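Anyone? Bumping this.
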Amino acid sequence: MPDPVHNRLSRRAVLGAGTLLAAPALLTRRTAAAETCVVGTWGGDYANLLRDNIDDPILKPKGVEVIQDIGDETPRVAKLTAQRKLPRGTMDIACVGAVNGYRVTDADLVEPLDAAKVPNLKHVLSYLGATAFVPHIFSAQVIVYNPATVTAPPQSFADLLDLKWKGKIGMVSTVAPWVMMGASLLESGTTTDFDKAKAFMLKLNDNGLRLYPETDALAPAFKSGEIDVAVIWLARSFMWHNAGFPVKGQFPKEGAIIYVSGMVVPKNAPNKPAAFKYLNAMLEPSAQRGFAAHMGYLPTVDDAPLSGTVGEQLSLPQPRPKLVTPDYPAISKALPDLNDWWLKNIQHT
Amino acid sequence: MNHAITQAARAASRRDAGAAFSLLGPASLLMLLMLVVPLGYMLRDSLNRFDPTEMMIAAVTPENYLRFFVDPFYRSVLYTTIRVSVIVTATCLAFGLPMAWRLARSTSRWKSALVVLTVLPLFIGSTTRTAGWMILFSRGGMLDIVSRRLFDAGSVNLMYTEPAVILGIIAINLPFTILTLQSVFEGIDPRLEQAAASMGAAPSRAFWRIVFPLALPGVLIAAVLCFILCMNAFATPVLLGGPKFQMMAPLLFWAFSGDNNWPFAAALAFILMATTLGLTGLANVVIPRRYRGG
């Protein structure tokens, strides 16, 4: 008697159909085995340190698998904005600087947070704040100099206009907003007097300001004697120091602008519980100390005191320098015009 | 009978059309998807309005194009890009023509080796090559050391200057120019030069009066290739020009990726594309018709 089933279906077709039918079950089991958290982050050292201090030691044992979505900050913010109308976004965590943190919070793109969702939020330093943007690390904008060639370093931004530094001052072109805030602080005691800051920057540019495309380009410029002084983050001088290039940092006496890097949870994050676990892990003392030890950024929590060599290197001098938090709403509003002005007047001579 | 022949001819025509579609279709479709559709999107974006919070607000406004043409800064960036591209193209032709002609006419057993040597720089990515130039140009780099130690001259620091960018782009574009020109010269019968010589023409006269006019359509193609590559150069201006040197492609990237201003970046992209196409078309008009290909 002929077998109608075997006449119509080949063995291959049966196997293929079986695999297709089984696929959802296989995928579901995989998803159930590990909760995933997609973290939009910068690459390089930062991504490696996230993995070494947060992903592997803290979250992996808890069954949270972290997937890093590596890219620059501005495209990440663009992605957040572009995906805002989607019911499910592609990131659970987005790493951004504080200015963009403010912007995405103001645009209602990110999840409000509290200690019920992220218990470690109660340890975040009060002057850094944490509503939707959670500070991860921070550093201060200082005047870094080469002690081999500079015996009397500039004490403030005002000293940079001294002719003895003509052609010997370096900056990274991308730090425009922070340098402008530093200049404003010098000129008017606030971080938002951009007209005076522009006038100061024009004078500094006339004093032979050298611009570099990225922070790493400053180290060879220091070593070759092209520059003696630079305005950068204290953390970078720590990294160079540990890499065998002993530069020193001087806090400007008018105050040092702080740069805060942190994380947000998009409102349409696919896995918010995992994102909250990630933020909590990021604020753990061990993770915070790991970043301080390797990148020289200061912890943003009150329960991660630094000790040993790292503590000595990163401790603030006495008397304690004035650390100034930017006026985020003001800088956020002024940023497009400031960037345009900088491009036309400082980057184009 | 006639009817049968007509039907057969129609069937053959349909087969030809089918064959043509099957050969041209996939590439055309891919081109449509990968180039025309994104360009269409970009054109639409270029007419939108920028907003720092919303990023892009749907509109039909020429303001992004006007911003470029009204502001002398942006126009100066375009002029710089054109200037650099013209200098690079002229230099590549000046160096490439004799090299390509010599290579084409060479009967040496080393000819293949010379061609490989010409192509060799293309084996290394342009960014890697530019990193090499950085070592050469920077303060404390090779040029600087040679200048100070051997010639007791002052410090040489070409980094972040226009000449550095021009040299860097020439190094990238020259092999393309030589290869294009060589294939053009290979296609010109050497007996024409021998005939000219037999009638008393000096080699240089034979080259400029016989070979060069015949090669002109190919030279135009080499120049256009070099010019387009330079107009759109990105890595070299960024790495060797530094933040204070502006060309169009880095400016476009800055608007797109640094400022998140997609409408303006899209407008810059179209302005750059239109300028490149316009100048290329102009070159086609300027060269007398009898020297052009086709």
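Late reply, but here is one note on the structure posted above: Residues 2-46 of chain B form the longest helix (45 residues).
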